[in-house]
Amino acid sequence: MSDRWYQKAVVYCLDIDTYADSNGDGIGDIRGLIGRLDYLARLGVTCLWLNPIHPTPGRDDGYDVEDFYNVDPRLGTLGDFAELLHQAGNLGIKVIIDLVVNHTSDQHPWFQSARSSPDSPYRDWYVWADSAPPDRHQGMVFPGEQGETWSFDRTAKLWYYHRFYKFQPDLNIKNPEVREEIKKICAFWLQLGVAGFRMDAVPFIIEETEPGNPNSPKDMDYLTDLRQFVQWRKGDAVLLAEANVEPDQLVTFFGDGAGSNNRIHMLFDFMLNGQLVLALARQNPEPVIQALRETPKLPPGGQWATFLRNHDEIDLSRLTADQRDQVFAEFGPDENMQLYGRGIRRRLAPMLGGDRRRLELAYSLQFTLRGTPVLRYGEEIGMGDDLSLEGRDAIRTPMQWSDLPNGGFTSGDPIRPVVTDDQFGFHAVNVTRQRHDPTSLLSWFERMIRTLREAPEVGAGTCTHVDVPAPEGVLVHRADDHTGTMLFLHNLCTKDAVVDLSSVYAEAEFPNDVLADREYPDLGKFAEVPIAGYGYRWIRLRRSS
Ligand code: GLC
Ligand code: CA
Fold first, then answer.
1. CA-to-CA distance for 484 and 25, rounded, in angstroms?
2. pTM
3. Is residue 200 among the annotated active site residues?
4. 49 and 377 Cβ atoms separated by less than 8 Å
5. How confident is the model at residue 3, as a pLDDT?
6. Which of 198, 310, 312, 390 to probe ligand 1 with, by most ligand atoms within 8 A of CB?
């Protein structure tokens, strides 16, 4: 058995302030989350990824941090947080937190000090330029919401660099004090008991910004250094990075090329995310097959984190313009559903028209492709979005627990409105109702995740496309490890199909369906394996002898 827990984890991402409010002030909090840990345990998730929990002016939903060594008072106290770690641990759930150290809030005392005087000890913690850098209108991450990457600070009378919003000045990674401080932040939270970090914006953290150079060098070795530090402080801690970079750069985030995984353990697979959404839009698995084929080989221990939805827009920027248009036409036809010219700000259920069969299909596919699945809160009940909210807030609405007022999220005035429309609003879509219904999407997720735990090949083994003559919409893939082999069929289109799998029959030992969209007839000799439109089959081909 692999002893790397993250390879067999099911990660659940949530924002505490929209999850569960315990004291009626309208803001979700740590105690509220503690009260829902039993729900998460039953669902079968093994690791929580908490969106930023630190004190913040809240201009980027917490990704603008004011103090790295505390918990935002609106969410609770450090004491509550320690209690959360303990209670989650009792249920076998690990907790990782967002590590947002590319930048701070402009309200952070470091920046306030840095701008105030050239003699400030923090002056060199940020990135400054005397005159307007010629590339200041390049490299914006949020086009439309952000006009430049360098802004003039009137107090310092200097230009400062901010890869993201203007109120998020970048820390200067070239400064050894900053490098040490980042380690200290990691050490602090590891000491409290977190299992690791979801590292925000990694390519930008290590960017050694030079004014006027839009392709500034990156210090990859800092990642080696940080990994070593983190591992020494807590042997099984993991780093899960957001690094949405060109495919040929990806492996350098996992290791220095000498063959070992000595940098980041896990990277979100943005490539696969785009291809997966494209495949769903086209009802044809070809993009996924290609993505599997083109996946770079990772050093042992390196792992992908798969996802369909996260807290940001679905980023389609790595698709061609035609492919992007196709996805927009299918899943985000109104301009109001799109964001930054590259993405979709919707949840999956509304994107798929609330079609239960397609939702199961999509999540079955994500969870069976290689890597560690990451699930965004609310997706397990098929929550909708609120397009009347600004930007990414559309998909950051409160969790829908019941049909009590405000979906049971709060007894007060919720920080963001709870979704109320007929199809996806809390009266129709909520935990309590689905909890009592064995045929609900929630019950399906519980069953699916439980089944995944019986199939460790998926997370820890290899994943390959099985090249059999399959009808157009059907993907056949397999997961292999020393524990055995799983075979998966997914039919991305509406048409029922029959697949000839006789070429793999020789390997089968007591094969059987362990999860499927319906009861299928006995597999026989695999010559005619039926798969319904939008259907899926998880077949245990053999266990290791
Ligand atoms: C990452 C986060 C995003 C945030 C940005 C700036 O991309 O996922 O939500 O706005 O970093 O910190
Ligand atoms: Ca509260």
1. 51
2. 0.98
3. yes
4. no
5. 82
6. 312
